[in-house]
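Researcher: I'm preparing a figure for a lab meeting and need a structural model of a single chain. I don't have an experimental structure, so a prediction will have to do for now. The sequence is pasted below. Please return the structure as tokens so I can convert it later.
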Amino acid sequence: MATDARLPTDRVRASSFYRFRSVALRGVLYLVLAAGAMIMIMPFLYMVSNSLKSLGETITRTSADPFSPMFWPTKLEWGNFRTVIDDGGLGRYFFNSIVIAAVTVGGVIVTSSLSSYAFSKLKFAGRDLVFSILVATLMIPDTVRLIPNFLTVSALGWLDSLPALSVPFMANAFYIFLLRQFFNQIPNSLVESARMDGCSHARILWSIVMPLTKGPISTVAFLAFNFSWNALQWPLIVTTTDQWRPISVGLTKLLSQSGPNTELRMAGAMLALVPTVVVYLLAQRQITEAIAQSGLKG
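Model: Understood. Here is the structure written out token by token.
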């Protein structure tokens, strides 16, 4: 009887121990994640603080501790951004990058959605073979395609123009592969029903498939925007003047011309970073939904 009386007590103790262990492990996990997040965000905080300092403060007020008053400026120097936009010429480069990225993203969405729909929902001879060859091109390094792309652009007379900076990147095998995997999840019966109702393939793609895959399409759009915005090597090759050079080239020139003016360098870097952060925040929900739909867990 005594042994039976102790059983509930032992169970309570065991349950309390497991709850304590679970809370302790979760606390350790949160501490590790917080430490990792702080390490990752430190360069960004350094960039923000120095972009708003004066030249003197970037030299005299330095600290590696973001909780120290010496890490932050005493007065916010918003004029640093005006200087890099007007005197540094980043305003023109910024506008060029916006136009290039918008045209590139639009082209990527059109070509990727059409190709993915064809590979997923249409039946034609050699479909799987053509798709396999397309995916195999992902193994070709970018440097191998550099010279053929340059010769093609040069032969078309596109050097130092908007098409040279956008058209070569409007089709990407990875984006097509990614969207095709999501298009495959849409039941074929839904497409067949729409066809029986008289819908064309273009109408099915626009009215049924794309609304159901807003998350993956937003992910492709963000990736294409990020790639176009950060491109540096290709713009340097196909442009000779500042007429269509993007902000990545302008930022490189600013870094070489600003000398010891750390605050101007950081202001230029902030200006180049803001659009990417804004686009990600706008597409974050859709990207998260795409990850959830793919079955990935994080």
